[in-house]
Specification:
By secondary structure, the chain is an alpha/beta fold. 32% of the residues lie in helices and 25% in strands.
Length: 278
């Protein structure tokens, strides 16, 4: 259990008049790169919000780092502070996440809340500006940036505090190909950092690059779990969960490939102000 970051046991969650997660159990270990794969409405975004303690289970138990995560537990400022220091969430819609006057202020906000020294804040912010090639944007207002720039700023604003766990909700959604490539490259290069990364996506094409293990969700339940090659080769599972209506196959190179009809879900309807699906 020492290597277990998240342990969910029979967790259910419902919005008013609308169930979202149903008796869900899964475990995420330290250093794993996990993809939560599912069509819109499968429960991916809701699950991420539970992992980030923005929502709490209606039934069942969620443990993070061995401790029960509940509204009562996080009412303790010390417990809440420690948890927020260790877990960071990048929302699908960066406009929900970015609210400070400038990009520099966005990146400095988290460290300021943690009480870091001015010298350390400046050092970390400058490092993130360089890491994501956004130094030229530091004095710009976030709402004036392009979609790809906003996504990079949102990612940098979370990573600036160096969380142990990074949660990402549809990180490539609505981005141009170059910006998508930059995000996927970052996730691919994170393989050996030791950071636990959980990415919710319905984009089958990026799964190999971003994950070592996949959970497939449908109607708030885990309906499939396995290595990317195993999941992407399961044509029946992908069709049943509305992730693809094409033939997928595993080629001689060991990689799964799709024909052109794999669903890309380009249309998004915001829910609760930030997500295209629950």
């Amino acid at each position: 259990m020492n290597d277990c970051v998240f342990d969910l046991s029979h967790v259910s969650f419902a919005y008013p008049q609308q169930p979202a997660l149903d008796d869900l159990s899964l475990r995420i270990r330290r250093g794993e790169r996990i993809a939560l794969l599912g069509a819109n409405g499968s429960g991916k975004s809701t699950l991420l919000r539970l992992l980030d303690a923005l929502y709490f289970p209606c039934r069942g138990e969620l443990r993070a780092f061995g401790e029960v995560i509940s509204e009562a537990a996080l009412a303790d400022d010390e417990v809440n502070f420690a948890f927020r220091r260790r877990v960071g969430l990048v929302f699908q819609n960066p406009d929900v996440q970015l609210f400070n006057p400038t990009v520099f202020d966005e990146l400095a906000f988290g460290p300021l809340q943690l009480g870091w020294s001015s010298e350390e804040i400046l050092r970390r912010v400058e490092a993130m500006l360089a890491r994501f090639a956004i130094g030229h944007l530091k004095h710009r207002a976030a709402h004036r940036l392009s979609g790809g720039e906003k996504k990079r700023v949102a990612l940098a604003s979370v990573l600036v505090i160096d969380p142990e766990v990074l949660l990402l909700d549809e990180p490539t959604a609505a981005l141009d190909p170059q910006s998508q490539g930059e995000v996927v490259r970052f996730l691919s290069e994170s393989r050996d950092t030791g950071r636990t990364i959980v990415t919710a996506t319905h984009d089958l094409e990026i799964v190999y690059d971003i994950a070592d293990f996949v959970y497939v969700l449908a109607d708030g339940k885990v309906v499939g779990a396995g290595a990317p090659a195993e999941i992407l080769a399961d044509q029946a599972l992908l069709r049943r969960t509305h992730l693809a209506h094409a033939h997928w196959h595993v080629a001689a190179d060991g990689l799964a490939h799709a024909h052109v009809h794999a669903h890309r879900h380009q249309h998004h309807t915001p829910i609760d102000g930030d997500s295209s699906e629950k």
